[in-house]
Amino acid sequence: MVTRFDLPAGFRWGVSTAAYQIEGAVDEDGRGRSVWDAFCERPGAVKDGESGRIACDHYHRYGEDVELMRGLGLDGYRFSIAWPRVQPTGRGAANPAGLAFYDRLVDELLAAGITPLPTLFHWDLPQELEEGGGWPARDTAHRFVEYTELVADRLGDRVPAWITLNEPFVHMVFGYALGIHAPGHAMMLDALPAGHHQLLGHGLAAALLRERGHQVLIANNLTPVWAATDSPADLAAAEAYDALHNRLFTDPLLLARYPDLSAYGLAEDLGGCVRPGDLDLIAVPLDGLGVNYYNPTRIAAPTDPGLPFTEAEIENVPRTAFGWPVVPDGLRELLVNLRARYGDALPPITITENGCSTDATLDDRFRIDYLSGHLTALAQAHAQGVDVRGYFTWSLMDNFEWAEGYEQRFGLVHVDYATQRRTPKASYAWYRDAISSHHVG
């Protein structure tokens, strides 16, 4: 039996994917190299030496995948466009074959009654731009706008809304600060310009898209931050972590300012990378804020002198196959706190990612319980006054899970990577019925 969640009229149901995680075809039709192509070639960088070279072969099987989406009764599909497929070096003219693929995909989605919601950047920077400085270089923000224009010129007549960036926090921290994702740098706090320039690129691209009459969102990974205890040291550490993970990317977008980062020894100019006028460019009006939610974060006073916090374990809760704590009410808490913090400056919310990894079984009751719990929490946030407009679960199908290779399975659809056979799991049927039940009302 499916619960009918109390969500607003016009609520959009969808699924999310990302280009490098599903497309494959990395050497076909003029696609350039990305930072993930290079990163996967590093010994030990990715579990079992895997890569997205073939992934789910979505580039050739997109028609089959759209049929799976049609079977769910989706309103929307959030996917990403591979920058190096469109603009192989990150500069210059578009690659016609690359744009033609997304042209076909958009048309296929529309024919199935599914609204496309493209993400312009989901971590696959052209390798040539990375070699020229990557996101820590200000020029990359300007290259991003040129790429955005190429895509909008081709697809803009059929795409009503765009997501500029996916999880700039995660890309900055995992890719540039810690080096556990591509491009694999361990810059620690020197990675902050990569965050600022992503936001600058967002602002410049958003202005271009809005001038053309498009709606614009940005999606970030956000987390409720819990102090490990009520001690002043733990509370101060939690505040410092919240400033880095959440407010560093949301305050500039909504308030045109950076949060207090004095705990990191930084002023508002982030060490000099913020120039006069940048924050006004970043704070272009948003039509929606994309929230990617997976779990809360528990924080204690620092044990390492290099950072003002230490992450602590959340105890006595279920865990996904990835080891992530499952706390559905954290989603309600996060959204209600966003509303309290930003008030009328907060745009409508779309959950652009939420899901869990489980084992390879098709009878994925764990995922069904996970989705049901989080949709209940989302409905509770709506009842508490949060303007929620949609829910896009992660993910349509099992895929390449970045540095974890193919071990973690997040899909509603099982993928046999040896044969590329797609098999809907129990959660696929549950989600289809949940969507149908809501639409009937």
UniProtKB/TrEMBL annotation:
EC annotation from Swiss-Prot or TrEMBL: 3.2.1.21
Cited Pfam families: Glyco_hydro_1
PROSITE patterns associated with the record: GLYCOSYL_HYDROL_F1_2
Gene3D superfamilies: Glycosidases (3.20.20.80)
Organism: Kitasatospora viridis
GO cellular component terms given for this protein: cytosol
Catalytic activity: Hydrolysis of terminal, non-reducing beta-D-glucosyl residues with release of beta-D-glucose
Lineage of origin: Bacteria, Bacillati, Actinomycetota, Actinomycetes, Kitasatosporales
BP GO annotations: cellulose catabolic process
Binding site for substrate: Q21, H122, N166, Y294, W394, E401, W402
InterPro entries recorded: GH, GH_1_N_CS, Glyco_hydro_1, Glyco_hydro_1_beta-glucosidase
GO molecular function, one term: beta-glucosidase activity
Official protein name in the record: Beta-glucosidase
Keywords assigned by UniProt, alphabetized: Carbohydrate metabolism, Cellulose degradation, Glycosidase, Hydrolase, Polysaccharide degradation
